[in-house]
Amino acid sequence: MPVAELRPETHPDFELEKEHLSGTVAAMIRQIEFWEDRDRQMGADLETSIILGDQAEEFAAMLSPHVHQPYFGSLKVRVAGREQTLYVGKHGFRDVKGPHTVVSWDSEVGSLFYSQALGWTPRRGSAGVIRRRRQLDVSQKTLLRVTDLYDDEQGGDTGGREEVLLRRLQEGSTAGMRDVVETLQPEQNDAMRHPAGVPVIIQGAAGSGKTTIGFHRLAWMTNADRGAHRARPEACMVLMPNRVLATYAARILPELGIERVVVTTPETWATGLLGLEKLEVTDRTLSLLLTDRDNTRRALAWRKAKLLGDARMLDVVRTHLWNRFNAALAGQGLREAVALRGREDQVFTLDDAALAGLLRDVFAADPLDGYRAGMRRAIEALALSTLRVPEDEEASVRRQLATPLTTLLGRIFATTTPITEARRLLGSPAELAASGLLTDREIALLGTDPLSGIPTPRRAHADVTELPLMLAVQAFTGGIGRLDGRTLEPFDHVVLDEAQDYSPLLYALLGRATRPGHITALGDMNQGMHGYKGPSSWEAVQAQLPGAQVLTLGRTYRSTRQITELGARIAATYNRAAAVQGVDRDGAEVQRYTAPAGPDGELPLIARAVKDAQAAGHANIAIVTRRGVDAERMAEALREFDTDAQPITTQEHRFRGGVVILPVNLAKGLEFSAAIVASANADTYDESTEYERRLLYVSASRALHWLALVSTGELHPLIA
User: What residues form the membrane-spanning segments (predicted)?
Assistant: First the structure.
């Protein structure tokens, strides 16, 4: 039945809920005061008392922010003939002296608030039945609204979930990603709670909440209920496509109660792992695709970039290193006198044949920290065994062997650095052919240089398409994973945003760097702006992440019906998005601004569109251009038309809200209350090229409430 049109305070249970809220706030404050009172945190001795006091202060600090909004929903359940009401909040709280306990949203019980299931089977005890789900809007310790989502006494589903969702979606955008704990939809909740320890790929259209769900899944993974699969926040990593989006998104994690998660870009993570933080990373393929009109050259650059990220390159690199290291072993050996207590000095000897056998074993073992560290351990273990070293003297023997071992390993491995070795491999057709995995045509393609016309930096640099190959060299030689002090260990969990832009080779490497089953990939094949370095299908990703499942979010929540329909029309021209369903949220018609070409071009139109958006009540407004150079030039020129727009043209810029102007590749992943697509015509977005239509789709899907299309001359045929 439809939700009754009632003022918030006229809900029949409003006063009862108001009283319960007051009691919960009071109970939380009492508990915080108890924790903060050091005199009441006494142990058997001074040291124990200090520890107890410090722990209590931490508990108080964690609970304090939630006093202003203790919970946002409730569940009435019947278990074994007995009814009880459970309150659901962002932070669990146990009221030991009363009925004001709160269960956390990321607990198993909390999941019942979001699902459509009516049965409840706890880990221990009898099965139960959900009798009512209720949304409670609370702010600053004040109850604002009560909305029933499901009530078996009112006929079941009340339509309240959609009402609450629409209310939230009508809010303006912010300068950071939204926390959706209060309004997770059932399909989003199912994706977020996909079984721990199983890799998952979440496919969803623009605005379906993929990135937000990924962050919430990470918070869910840190809950103690995950058992052996529980992730430590400091051992987790989130990879975002650029630093603008990383900064925008990272603000949500503390709101979800997790700190110290590494939120970075693939390039920053890779250069840090390589120890080359000052290396400048370019994307010359993207520069070519955005600026060059020669489709033959663009196609060649695309094909070469795809091949560089092919998963087969992992074994191409492995074969190359096997040949390199075996060649380096020729004539090498080790002969070292070792002092042992109560015995004459023992001589430990290895010739190149023995070294080759050890290298074969190390390659077979494929250690996480790389062949060099694995070879050191293998030689040390052989020495300890051969010399029959007592356990209490093992450390002494390792110290005695340390210098000669370092010298030997240096002769075998030292000339193999990730950058030089990756480029040496690419420059050698014979080495590329050694694995037998690449065809003659593919080897010839890797020898071409379609990017010769794109400038390179004067300082040391690497292209983004080369980085996975360099990481492969690093993974095999020096290891790959998370550094904890001097120890390399797998990440507990990794979340990949814009997952359609990560190469199969990079997926293979991330699979090595992470606990098995602990990768969450979020993406949309329709938004594959960087398809030259991404997979052709999710099946290519599943091949690198054994057991990975693909979940599809079939609904988009970002935009109004008018904006969603426009985006679906563009995406339908290159497949896959036609079935996406938007929220039935009505809004302003898409605005179209056109004029004949004039001396100022489209600047007067853009300035007018900005003022119209502001007049409609929108504060966060984006002007989306196709290229960074267009954004820089336009930001300066718009000042002549009394329009001030902050340019975001590099990853160093931050989105702080207000009116901004940025290229489509940096706008991707962000959302704004209003968006204006500049130069929305076929001259800018070539109708005959799928890549250009993808760019247009991304540009037109940034707005929550208000979208404008601007062009001198005719608009693009897909949006006219």
Answer: none
Q: Which amino acid is at 593?
A: Y
Residue 211 marked as a ligand binder: yes
CB atoms within 10 A of CB 182: 22
Go through 438-452 and write b for each residue having 16 or more CB atoms within 10 A of its CB, e for each that does not: beeebbebbeeebbe
DSSP state letter for 224: G
80 is in an annotated binding site: no
On whether 204 is known to bind a ligand per the annotation, the reply is yes
Rounded distance between C-alpha atoms, residue 599 and residue 27, angstroms: 68
d(CA 287, CA 715) in angstroms, rounded, equals: 25
Asked if residue 210 belongs to a known ligand binding site, the reply is yes
Q: Mean pLDDT of residues grouped by 10 in the chain (720 residues)?
A: 48 95 97 89 80 87 94 93 93 92 92 88 80 95 95 88 85 70 90 95 89 92 93 96 82 84 93 89 89 88 96 97 94 93 90 95 95 96 94 94 94 87 95 96 95 89 93 95 90 95 96 97 83 91 96 89 90 67 88 89 95 95 92 91 90 82 89 95 89 90 95 93
Angle at 181 between CA 178 and CA 185, to 5 degrees: 100
Give the phi and the psi of residue 624 in degrees, each rounded to 5: -100, 120
Q: Where are the beta strands (DSSP E) in 605-669?
A: 621-625, 646-647, 659-663
> Residue 595 is encoded by which pair of tokens?
């004029």
Rg, C-alpha atoms of the chain: 30
Would you state the structure tokens that stand for residue 674, as one six-digit string?
Answer: 């209003």
Other beta carbons within 10 angstroms of residue 515's beta carbon come to 18
* 549-553 and 200-204 strand pairing: parallel
pTM metric for this prediction:
0.86
Contact between 232 and 492 (Cβ < 8 Å)? yes
Segment holding 472, helix H or strand E: helix 467-477
Any binding-site annotation on 278? no
DSSP string, 80-117: TTEEEEEEEESS-B--TTSS--EEETTSHHHHTTTS--
- Residue 138's φ and ψ, nearest 5 degrees, are -125, 135
Q: Flag whether 577 is marked binding.
A: no
C-alpha to C-alpha distance for 490 and 236, rounded to whole angstroms: 9
Q: 103-124 b/e with 16+ CB inside 10 Å = b?
A: bbbbeebbbbbbbeeeebeeee
Rounded CA gap, 720 and 278, in Å? Answer: 46
In contact, 216 and 181? CB cutoff 8 Å: yes
The count of other CB atoms within 10 Å of the CB of residue 66 is: 18
Written as six digits, the tokens of 204 are: 């969803």
Token couple for 465: 């398409």
d(CA 436, CA 448): 20
- Cα separation, 634 vs 607, in Å, equals 11
Give phi and psi for 688, each to the nearest 5: -85, -10
Alpha carbon distance 431, 320 (integer Å)? 6
